[in-house]
Amino acid sequence: MSMGLPDGCRERPGMRGRRWIIAGVAAGLLGLAIGATALAAPSIAAIACPQCYGLSDLGGGIYAEQDDDRFREIVAAADRRIGGFYGERTSDARVLICATKDCYSGIGGGGEKGRAFGRWALMLSPDGANETIATHELAHLELHKRLGSAYDTVPDWFDEGLAVLISEDVRYLKPATESDRCLVPHAEAARITGADWDTAGPPGDDRKYLLAGCVVSRWVSEHGGPSAVHTLISELREGKPFSEIV
Known about the structure:
Elements: H1 15-40, H2 42-48, E1 56-59, E2 62-64, H3 69-86, E3 94-97, H4 101-106, E4 114-117, E5 121-124, H5 131-147, H6 156-166, H7 186-189, H8 207-222, H9 226-237, H10 242-245
Parallel strand pairs: 2-3, 3-5
Antiparallel strand pairs: 1-2, 4-5
Helix pairs in contact: 1-2, 3-5, 5-6, 6-8
């Protein structure tokens, strides 16, 4: 028995041709949208399709310009540092690593060593392809993942200072064996808490990381270590204002 379309829905002459035209136009518009995204936001396009930008899949969410075990080791070491602070890493990040400046600029990178994107991905430049920078960027993703929808309640200075602390960045902190890890007087560093991060220093100015690292390392130390951050995250997720906690 024929199961054709109901009379009111039967294809009339020309319908099939018009349908193919519509499908073709839709595909073309989709292609234009993807192309526009690649031009306007190459970082987003590269995260969505690393291979489209010449990056090889190294496994474990790592994509790199070169198939080099060194890149796997960098991410594994960063994982261990995140786990050492939080107990485990819960974020599932896509990591894009460039070995050349051309690669990094091609995926939307600038003069920074690395960039984190929300809770999902990070990019590392040739200068940032090391354990410290990888840990710093992964620390951002981990905090954002643990905070969930409360991630935007944490000011940038705390987010950056915590990443400095977790990555043990010796450019901005004294060794962990020191009781006071600040490289500047704490009273001076505290001014970062009242500043807008983007205007706290000119682009490329590392001093604001030094100030933020000092303030956050002191707060974490005085409040029981990493457990204080766990408590902070729980209270923020419950809706408590950041200013009442820190």
